[in-house]
Write a structure and sequence with these properties.
It contains six helices and no strands. It is mostly helical and about 140 residues long. The termini are far apart.
């Protein structure tokens, strides 16, 4: 069995603490604000400040993912889009840095991380959980 190091424990603790307390936000909302707002906007409707500068691609309304999928949130599809394994025109060519790759690079750069893949999954699943919360 792997030993869990201090950084991993700190990450888990921060995840738990970020979901409680006055003014605190969830890890998923934190990820959304830091990674998605520029294109998808505060509301998730695709009206972020840089959306007008994308090369003809329409930024999807993230609040309608469930509605557009017969009332079921498309967890697997959302995961693959965020991770970078699904081909998505709005996110550019495949050599563009995708969020899953960004999380993996962050985890691998820190020698205290024992499980970079677990870190990546945690961040992506937290983001998906937030997207589920903003569905109309």
């Amino acid at each position: 069995m792997c030993k869990i190091r201090n950084t991993t424990l700190a990450l888990l603790g921060a995840t738990l603490l970020s979901t409680t307390g006055a003014g605190a936000i969830s890890l998923g909302e934190f990820e959304y604000r830091n990674s998605c707002v520029a294109c998808h906007g505060e509301s998730g409707k695709g009206d972020g400040p840089v959306s007008d500068f994308l090369s003809g691609a329409e930024v999807p309304d993230l609040t309608a993912l469930q509605k557009n999928n017969n009332g079921v949130f498309p967890v697997s599809a959302a995961y693959e889009i965020i991770d970078g394994t699904a081909e998505v025109g709005a996110h550019g060519m495949r050599d563009m840095l995708i969020w899953g790759a960004r999380y993996r690079m962050r985890a691998e750069a820190d020698p205290d991380f024992v499980e970079p893949d677990a870190y990546v999954r945690t961040r992506i699943l937290a983001l998906i959980e937030y997207l589920v919360e903003i569905q109309e």
